[in-house]
Design goal:
Coagulation Factor XIII, Chain A, domain 1; seven-stranded mixed β-sheet; single chain; 3 helices; mainly beta
């Protein structure tokens, strides 16, 4: 039996390597067409900072039917659309979000570069809308908060253009009992093992 440690895993897996996404992780184009192409509304701003080269102009959360949602059941598919306007030229634009719980703890986050998407350089005055389509994890029921951001650079070398803390909230509605922070999809099996079979030669 070979045991893989931290060193082996780090050598085999590149940091920021995009996860293999299922082709089924999608929302039909006719449904996405119901969503405004450019979102110009930010429900909440707790704190905002950045160099101003790009500005997040709006964020919205939409269900699998294309309608705005403020509450979804665990595991439901949603689309987070973030719209950005560039105030100056941005050579390596990147857009993403951080998801936090009610305690302000970072639960998860992602961005275009992290998912393997590299947008073309943006010129001042241009606009961009970015969709993040995901099946919501089986998180512990309660309220969660999206913090959208726009940056210029790579994953490890970048300038933050705009970051908005807790711009919008979503309520995760319980569908199943969840122990801890979240329930992870697991396949289980059990087998009867005789004493003779369990002996190590």
């Amino acid at each position: 039996m070979v045991t893989r440690g931290r060193k082996e895993i780090m050598e085999e897996e590149a940091i920021g390597k995009p996860l293999g996404t299922s082709a089924e992780l999608d929302i039909p184009e006719e449904v996405l067409a119901k969503i405004p192409k450019f979102i110009a509304h930010i429900p909440n701003i707790d704190h905002r900072w950045g160099n101003g080269k790009a500005r997040v102009q709006g964020i919205g959360i939409y269900g699998k039917d294309g309608d705005p949602v403020n509450g979804v059941a665990q595991g439901d598919r949603i689309c987070i659309r973030i719209s950005v306007e560039f105030q100056q030229d941005v050579v390596q634009p990147n857009v993403g979000f951080m998801l936090r719980n009610r305690l302000g703890e970072d639960v998860t986050g992602t961005n275009l570069l992290y998912e393997g998407v590299r947008p073309a350089p943006a010129r001042a005055g241009e606009r961009m809308s970015v969709d993040f389509i995901m099946d919501l994890p089986f998180l512990h029921a309660g309220f969660y908060y999206f913090s959208p951001a726009a940056a210029d650079g790579t994953l490890d070398q970048y300038e933050m253009c705009d970051w908005i803390d807790n711009a919008c909230a979503i309520e995760v509605i319980q569908r199943t009992i969840t122990y801890g922070h979240m329930r992870i999809p697991v396949r289980t099996r059990a087998m009867t093992v005789t004493r003779e079979a369990s002996r190590v030669p």
